[in-house]
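Re: weekly structure request thread

Next one in the queue (84 aa):
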Amino acid sequence: MTRYYFDVRDNGRLFPDDQGMELESLDDAVAEAETVVAEMAKDVLPGSLRRDLVVEVREEQSPPLVEAVLAFKVKVTADRQKTK
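Done, posted below.
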């Protein structure tokens, strides 16, 4: 088993994981990162016009091995002004 750490970046702000999680393989860590970014999206995207979420998977002192990235942007294409 390997201990993987899941550091989170929300619009560039880093939230490091200091506990980690023991998993069988890097594939399991990728699946966990996908789940983490999806769960975060449910909590923070409503009401956002732009959000960049990243979950970086690393071993204890290694650089990131995997990044799960979700870039969200709302683009209003219609004129929102009301006519009188």
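The longest strand covers residues 2-10. Helices lie at 26-44.
Next request, please.
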